[in-house]
Sequence to fold (407 residues):
Amino acid sequence: MTHFTRRQFTLSTLSAACALPLVGCGKKASAGNILKVGILLPSSGFEASLGQSCKIGSDLAHTILSEIYGVDFEIVYADTESNANAGRTKAEKLINEGAHVLIGAFDSGVTAAIAQVCEQRGVPFVVNIAAAPQITEQGYQFVFRNFPTGPMLIRNGLSLMKDLFKEKGISPKTAAFIHVNDTYGEAMRKGIEALFPTLDMPFKIVETISYDPKTQDLSTEIGKVKASGAELIMPATRLEDAVLMIKEVYKQKLKIMGIINPGSPGMYEKDFFAQLGDKSNYWISNTAWFNPKASITQLVQKALAKAFPNNYLETNSAYTFEAVHIAVDAYKRANSLDLIQIRDALKETNIADHVTMGGPIQFDAKGQGINATSASMQNHGGRPQVIFPVSAREIDAVFPIPMYEAA
Fold:
């Protein structure tokens, strides 16, 4: 295998990587002299489809990063079952089986449980996606997260709303905040309560509504939104509840200017479009995203189109790719399978050319990434497309939504 350093690789040089088979899953390590990366994702339970989209990113990472860094590594997957206890048990199992680094786990509650295990066992843990602030507020030395915290997402998301309202010359006067009541959703609620009064937003929040992420019916909650007269909905959702929300918005004929999430998953997922069809259009997600202009992003997208032609790059796959990127980069620099040396290399991470939006990947003393930012994506043509920042824009924004204008 040809050796490429991070500084040397270019899109044209590595285009051949896109033709490589996706290997690594189940590949046998040779006598313990290969980096073993354990990836914990929800491949069953109510978050299963989200875990599958994350896995696409790590599958691509093995092919591409082996080429970039000139190293071989093994990926072993474990199912968290969308459950914190299962996540903890599976993390212990992967460590006992010789994993040098763990990555995961999409859900904040599950991620927090895995972080405890890794800290106790002295095994580096790179978070792919999880926003609850407490994950990097425990004084842990083995936990690293490039994904923004809930407050970071909210601050970025609300700022992007202002950019939209300024460009369009119109803004709502009232909004309803509706959120799941799990670890992530409660972190978002607390962040909204703390940050919203400080950001001089042009609207006021007239209703805050919580619900169980496993709910099968949001008619009551959306009825409350309608009764409040809110012109904007700000949701903190997962996937299935986001679909339920949109169905109820249409069913109850809400006269809203739009739906803009301030930093959540749900509305950018492939299955969101598949389940809603034309009703998936115009909703806006302000959240952590990939940079469509980055050279490595173009490489990943080319590989994605070849290996997974029915999928597109989004937060789940991009940030899981990035987590593997961070782990492999640290291993390459450490030049060792010693867990302390890998941990110390993670602390010194400085990756300038990466997939996700923001500056160089670097961590503070708590293990939190300091340069990750958000983008604003509007659903159009069967996928989310960047509207802000303008430097990464793919389409012009539509706001208010046509449904509102026609009302």
User: Anything to note?
Assistant: The radius of gyration is 21 Å. The chain has a mean pLDDT of 89.
